[in-house]
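Collaborator request, handled under Task 6.
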Amino acid sequence: MTGQYTGQSMIKLIAGSNTSVITVHRDAPPPQFKNITINGNKSNQTGTSYGVYFPDTTAQAYYTYAGWLEDCFILDCRSDGLFIGSNRGAGRYKNVWIQYCGTTTSDSGMNIRSYDQQLDNVNVGPNAGFGFYIGAATQIQMKDCVSFMNEVGMTVSSDAGLIQVSNSVFDDNNKEGTIVLRGTGAGDYGGRVFVGCSWRRNSASATNTYSDIKIDSCQRTSIISPQFTGSESSGHVAKYNVEFSSSTQKPYVHVTSIMSENASGNSYGTALTNDFTSLMLAGTRDAYIGKTNGIQSLSAVINDTERLRVTATGTFVNAKFYPPKDDGTLQSSVELYAGGGAPNNANGADGALMDYRDWE
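Structure tokens returned to the collaborator:
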């Protein structure tokens, strides 16, 4: 089904229909929708009503398909804007906007519950609940996507498997930008990878309350080359850049090329993370590490960092610094150099562990 222009070719649900605008039952090769606006007319519906609905289906001996959507708008749906049910593979979505969908915080802009889904420039928001919700799904690839002004930008459920998200933005969401839950499979079901993504101005409903990323007990999450940006002037400051909510499943965190700043380019002081077994930082512009009571086994490797601040409450932080000399050359020993160029051992002998509750 191809429209002439996205803004002019519209399918709008009749008032009182109380059904989905488009429901795809067929298990044959995927239907294609292009250059179409799909309007759910939610104020005139009372029942469950999706924009585009691919219901759950049983696994077949042959491939069971979802759909292909390109250059489409999905607007004003009472329930999820786009629902991909179980056993619906080979879904392709490019240049799709999903806005003003849902009536409760459990609704989603896009709800994915199947395997083999590719999203390219899918924009979700503002919506009442989740921007993206990844349910019992795996082999999900997302690139150049945006989730903005939703209740939560994206949730990866405990039933989800392999997820890769690249060059995407989670912006101005009321609560968390991204929530990742631990998988229910052996060890930890699947892996979740975020590459080159940005988290900006989240915790919009209550500053310093929700985090850019919240990871609950999941040890298989990689965050590569992220950027975190807050806004002090508008009160959009996240609780943590990366928050871990479990004291028993501490993750190994590898974060590279982090940038943490406000709109004016100054660090806004949100701690990078609150709990981890091992932390590796490299290529950072600003990094704040917060360590709270009762957290043990903190181990950090920090390279090529312009500015670092570590705070500890109720416990000591043990640290060993190896800064460069004044001429920029790296040290192979453990001498500490001050501005005058001479070794500065005022805080202890070379290589000694320095114990401080608040140091930078």
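The cover message to the collaborator said: "Confidence is low (pLDDT under 50) at residues 262-268, 291-298, 314-319, 334-360. The two ends are 60 Å apart (CA to CA). Please let us know whether this matches your experimental observations."
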